[in-house]
Amino acid sequence: MENNNNNKAGTAHSPFHQTYFHGTKADLKIGDFITTGISSNFGQNKKAKFIYLTATLDAAIWGAELALGTGCERIYLVEATGAIEDDPNLTDKKFPGNPTKSYRSAHPFKVVGEITVWQGHSPEQVKAMKDGMERAKQMGIEAIED
Fold it and tell me: How far apart are CA 99 and CA 102, in angstroms?
């Protein structure tokens, strides 16, 4: 059977792109880009060299719940515009094998949607996580590795 498709075998283009989740308190719109250089939500709140995303809703929920600021917790669907890599803050130090499917990139992410219905963690779980982060901070352990 002859293939009339102009694409070479194995190079067919899909109209779909891999999407990821990004939890935050920022109020964004579809089409916006999340970029580096904005104050980080974690650590010493310095200018972020990387943007973080995840392939799991649970990790994105944690990102939204732990983000600094007073805005509404939001979870966006995003597409990477460049290379991504495993998040070294979680992958090798806390969860070998990257079960949280957490990644980072120096390239922008394009907001392509928002998850508007999701169940957050219990107030006790969030408090325990924040207390643990504060203990680590007091011990001089940075939450984000640049």
Answer: 8
Q: With a threshold of 0.70, does the pTM exceed it?
A: yes
**Hunting for tokens 């580096």 — which residue is that?**
36
Which has the closest alpha carbon to 130: 56, 66, 36? Answer: 66
Contact 24, 74 (CB under 8 A): yes
| Residues 35-65 pLDDT 10s | 987 665 555 555 778 888 999 999 999 999 9
Where are the chain's structural domains?
Answer: 20-138
CATH code of domain 20-138 = 3.20.170.40
DSSP 11-33: -PPPS----EEEEES----TT-E
Take residue 37 and report the two structure tokens written for it.
């250089």
Cβ atoms within 10 Å, residue 101 = 18
